[in-house]
Amino acid sequence: MSNALPWLVIGQGAIGSLMAIRLAEQGLPVQLKLRQEAPAKTSTTLTCGDKSVRLPTTRSVTQACWIFAAVKAYDVAPLLRELHQSPAFRSSTLVLSYNGMLNDEATLLRPHDLHWVTTHGAYRELDRVVHAGHGQSWLGTQQAGLAQPQELCKQLAQALPPLTWDANIATRRWHKLAVNCLINPFTVVHHCRNGELLQQVSAAQWQQVAEEIVALAAVRGIELEAARLIDHARQVASATAANRSSMLQDYRLGRTTEISYLNGFIASASAEAGLTAPANAALAQQVLELSRDRDLR
Ligand code: PAF
User: Where does the Ketopantoate reductase C-terminal domain start and stop, copy by copy (predicted)?
Assistant: First the structure.
């Protein structure tokens, strides 16, 4: 354990809270980072199943640490700008998990920062976290091919298994991005649960959205296949048939959706690369308009 650092967990949504509880249950030092505007309190109690843990809180990075941040896509850039202002961040390592992609990831993230991709499902009811779907996770560095941080990986794997090291996490992230682009906006447009998409969305619609993603990924050196992406989306939609996607939940609760980092990202990054992505652009526009109409009601 010689090179181990204490954990700082950022993002108190379901996944961040679950990870904080699981790390603390391993006897590891864990602090929760509060938002700057959050009311002052020195600790928070979180519960999962029959276990409760009381975790100290902080507003900033005051010491070198391992940071686990599971946040909404639109919170990533402001969070990174805030972290970069703290001198202790220089000797800290960031593990980041969020849906979608940002155009300026390469400038915001350092090469050794890590992406954590997961299929675990969880939700929060006040201070109680429900680990609803046991999945698996992958971890890899922003810059492909860097060495695996052994102790950090071991601790994350013990906290929430199984975890696989992925030296090329970018391809896995693109796969997840594609599945989210194929499922989430359609659940808002059709206002339906994931499983109903299998009847609501035509094969041609999914094909066009997937082909545009494949074309952009290719420009970025990532090889994907439209048929595989669609198969994967179909499997996820049937495995989570009764669920409302995170985007539909955000839409129904009047929150900002992540559309600009999913289909919106595909549309804008394609335009920058000299490609067109009309199906993704139209979906992004539709979700933004539906959200605007909802806010005006
Ligand atoms: O964002 C979500 O809701 C999930 O990632 C997914 C895979 C679409 C399942 O609901």
Answer: 168-287
Atom 10 of ligand 1 has which residue's CA nearest to it?
Answer: 245
Which stretch of 20-24, 38-42, 77-81 has the lowest confidence by average pLDDT? 38-42
Q: Is the dihedral of CA 177, 183, 188, 189 positive or negative?
A: positive
Co-location of 105 and 200 in the same domain: no
Please count the structural domains in the chain.
2
pLDDT tens for each residue of 150-164? 999 999 999 999 999
Locate tokens 């969020």: which residue?
98
* Final residue in a domain of this structure, among 167, 195, 230: 167
pTM given for the model: 0.94
Alpha-carbon dihedral 67, 69, 73, 74, rounded to 10 degrees? -80
Q: Give pLDDT, residue 39.
A: 79
Q: What ipTM does the predicted assembly reach?
A: 0.96
Q: Is the CB of 183 under 6 A from ligand 1?
A: yes
Which residue, of 132, 148, 167, is where some domain finishes? 167
Residues 19 and 154 in one domain: yes
For residues 70-75, give the mean pLDDT. Answer: 96
CB distance 184 to ligand 1 below 6 Å: yes
Establish if 280 belongs to a structural domain: yes
Q: Are 273 and 183 in the same domain?
A: yes
CA distance 255 to 278: 26
Query: Does 185 lie in the same domain as 199?
Result: yes
State which of 116, 194, 261 you would mutate to test the pocket of ligand 1, scoring each by most atoms of that ligand within 8 A of its C-beta: 194
| Cα-Cα-Cα-Cα dihedral sign, residues 13, 254, 183, 170 | negative
Structural domain that includes position 229: 171-296
User: Known catalytic residue: 176?
Assistant: yes
Instruction: Mark whether 51 and 158 lie in a shared domain.
Output: yes
Average pLDDT in the chain: 95
Whether 1 maps to a domain, the answer reads: no
C-alpha pair distances (Å), 146 with each of 141, 169, 222: 6, 11, 18
* Ligand 1 close to Cβ of residue 243 (< 6 A): yes
Q: Which of 51, 72, 154, 176 is catalytic?
A: 176
